[in-house]
Amino acid sequence: MSTTTDIAAQSMPIRKYELGRPIIRREPRVALERLHNAIAHVWSDSMAEYLPRGAALEFAGLDFGSFASVTIDDNPCAQAAMFSIGSDPVSGFLIMSGTLAKFVVTNRLGLKSATDDAAASLTRIETAIARETIRTMLMRLRDEYNAAGLGSLANVRECEDLTDSLPFTPDDYLALLGFRMSGLDDEMHVLIGLNGNVVNALSQPRVDGAEGSNHCGAIIDAVAQLPIEVDIVLGSWKVPIEELLRLRPGDRIVLPEGEDAWLAARGIRLRRACLEITQTGARAEILRSAR
Amino acid sequence: MTPQSLMNTVVEIEAVLSSMRMRADGLAALAPGDHLDLEAQGGSVLTVRLMADGATVATAALAVEDGRLIATIINRGSGTAGQRIDQWKHSKAKTTA
Questions:
Q1: Among B9, B78, B58, which residue's Cα sits nearest to residue A246?
Q2: Residue of B nearest to A220 (CA)
Q3: Where are the domains of chain A?
Q4: Which residues of B touch A286 (CB under 8 A)?
Q5: What CATH class has A2-224?
């Protein structure tokens, strides 16, 4: 049992609008993309030991399509789980491709040839490990969805046979979120499918106050809850590439002392800070902006 | 461009002490005087990533020697562990009455 979709394998082509497709506004689309970019990082961090060396799971893109567009393949190692999100349920599924599941399992078992006979079925022990991996991924997913205000994951169950287990009809419209291994073959991928309610859930986060009626405000609220990766930067300097290439383990560099440090997200400076390094850790004090 | 001129090309290196994940609203609410504290886990040394244009070119162990911050290169690139997300403790600035 295995499922793949084209979106995990390639960048999204521009398609003609089909009558009957729901209109997805830009804001929730961007919010979904950012959220799942963050999820790719979280998964990569938590599974770093078991993924191919130097590779990481990266978010491949968001697409909207019918459940019928999700193609089924024959790899017996693929793993799938279903879940719902929040009290106004969004149904969803998480699928790990058979090749990736096999790789992770053999790596976790410490076996040598993690890619040999990738199409062979998993043993019972291997299946248990694969499912434990999926459960770990779902826990991270739960945390990120919770932080984004989507609500918690519930009714999680593993699927023996995807085609018999999914509560979707072929015409159900889904948000399909693909993940792939950076720089590796397209056989190693993960897919999340969420029914269309997720767009409403993102647009109208559950708020205690009355502001939930303000559509624009609701989207801003949803975006405000998204996790952002922030770097704490001690300082910067310029150096010729030649000098950079000469760096070797054991070399020592005197760094800026941290008085002119900053917080940055994706290279954009957000806050000035004064950093103090101690024997037990570090402390950053936020400074007033120079502007 | 000749190889030598390529070698002479200057790039900007950033020393990234740590990466953390914050909610966007929490980040926006950071105010002057607020503190973020990081405790090295299990007595391990702090590390710093030397980054050029978003890519890790080296990872180094951080130490304070004679009041100076010294980074000792551990490996080139990000190493096998990849990027680490740290937990920082946020405390608001104390206000005076």
A1: B58
A2: B25
A3: 2-224, 231-286
A4: 30-36, 93
A5: alpha beta
| Partner B contacted by A290 (CB < 8 A) | no
CA torsion, ordered A229, A233, A236, A241, to nearest 10 deg: -50
Q: How many CB atoms lie within 10 A of CB B19?
A: 19
CB–CB of A261/A233 below 8 Å? yes
A48 touches chain B (CB under 8 A): yes
A4 close to A97: Cβ distance less than 8 angstroms: yes
Q: Please, are residues A262 and A228 in contact by the beta-carbon 8 Å criterion?
A: no
Q: What is the pLDDT of residues A3-46, one digit of tens each?
A: 444 444 444 555 555 555 566 777 778 888 889 999 999 898 88
CB contact at 8 A, A174 and A67: yes
Given a contact cutoff of 8 angstroms between Cβ atoms, the answer to whether A102 and A114 are in contact is yes
Rounded CA separation A230/B38 (Å): 14
Instruction: Write down the ipTM of this complex.
Output: 0.88
Name residues 132-171 of chain A within 8 A of B (Cβ): 147
Q: Tell me the whole-structure pTM to 2 decimals.
A: 0.49
Q: What are phi and psi of A142, to 5 degrees?
A: -60, -45
d(CA A31, CA A38): 11
Angle formed at CA A242 by CA A240 and CA A247, multiple of 5 degrees: 100
Handedness of CA B18, B24, B25, B29 (dihedral sign): positive
Contact present, A70 and A3 (Cβ < 8 Å): yes
